[in-house]
Amino acid sequence: GMNTADFVPLSSLEEAAPNSVVDVIGIVRSASEEQKITNRQGKEVMKRTVAVVDDSGVQVNVAIWGERAGRESSMATRWSECPVIALKGARVSDYDGRTLSVTSATQIELDPAIDRANTMRTWFASQGNTLVPRKISIGADGSTETSSRGETLKLESIEKLNEIMNAPQNDPDAVVPDYVTLSANVSFIRRENPWYACCPSSECNAKVVPNGDNKWHCDKDGQTYDHKTNRYVLQVSLQDETATAWATAFGDQASVLMDGVDADKLEQTQDVDPDAFDMAFQAAQDKPFIFTLRLKRDEYQESVRVRATIVKIVKDETGQKSEGPDVDLNEEIEKARNSLEYENAAGV
């Protein structure tokens, strides 16, 4: 039970390593509705996000996956009552700042009969409920109005993008939107390390390492394979008449920029046909696209940097400025996010 749990304060999660497992206890400030998420394998999973605060003055988002997120769960009617929540074996994720994921191995108890729950309740009643907590998750509420889906902010230029991305260096509290969309050209794609060796299992995007006898070992699923598959991780320079900015493109988005040539095929041409190799990198050059970027704060040495990942690319047929994202775009983004988050959470 929870008596043996080794609870750590939520304030310690910022230093905790991603994928480490922790025990925490706090108060549920708010909870989202349950969502049906389709993961990349086409399987439907239930998800609910709850915002939890504790007496270290910090609030974190906890993603609950599976049966326990659903409305059939015995917990479903209790989320709105600000119960004490104790989690044993929750997984730390650096998805959207710092968040916690409840996997099948995690124990959850609401209002457990332990002393620590009583002190937490007393704290919340006397001061916690009026405290403005420090939020370490992005899209920081769990509540649906500010659900971490965030609005996609339409930008008129890369100059504006750079302003947003550089702001936290001067002001650590500067707000960075989750998603932005803008029209730009690709001016350059870096040729160095354009892919990584990836686990051939379709469930897994982990790196594999060669183990000497033409085999590849995956630390994540513990298997050794006869072959690997390459997964793109491209550094792309975006440009318009105002400025340039770097963004990263993975997997499918990267293939769009490489004219549909996949990373395995590209590796085969590298030595045999350098011209074809080079052509692939130039395929997207100077063509106008509408990019949707996910922006993510990254604490680096002593400073805060913001990284941009390309989550959607649409050919800009008009050459005019785009009219902003349509509903389907948000759905696409949500799918991309959730499959990523689900893979991180379940360690799949």
Q: Would you kindly provide a brief summary of this structure?
A:
A five-stranded mixed β-barrel has the order 1-3-4-6-5. Strands 10-15-16-18-17 form a five-stranded mixed beta barrel, surrounded by four helices. A three-stranded antiparallel beta sheet has the order 12-13-14, with no helix packed on it. The relative contact order is 0.13. The protein has six helices and 18 strands.
Give a description of the structure:
This protein is 21% helix and 35% strand. With 348 residues, it is of the alpha+beta class. The strands form three sheets. Strands 1-3-4-6-5 form a five-stranded mixed beta barrel. A hairpin with a 5-residue loop joins β5 and β6. The longest helix has 20 residues. The two termini are 27 Å apart.
What key phrases describe this protein's structure?
five-stranded mixed β-barrel, five-stranded mixed barrel, alpha+beta, 348 residues
The sequence of SSEs as H and E is: EEEEEEEHEEHEEEEEEEHHHEEH
Which structural class do you get from the secondary structure elements? alpha+beta
Q: Beta-sheet strand percentage?
A: 35-45%
Looking at the structure, what is the overall shape?
Answer: globular
Give me the number of helical elements.
6
Strand order of the largest sheet: 1-3-4-6-5
Distance between the termini: 27 Å
Work out the number of β strands.
18
Helical amount: 10-25%
Question: Unreliable stretches, pLDDT < 50, 5 or more residues?
Answer: 140-150, 320-327
Average pLDDT level? 83
Taking all Cα atoms into account, the compactness measure Rg is 22 Å
Largest sheet: 5 strands, mixed, barrel
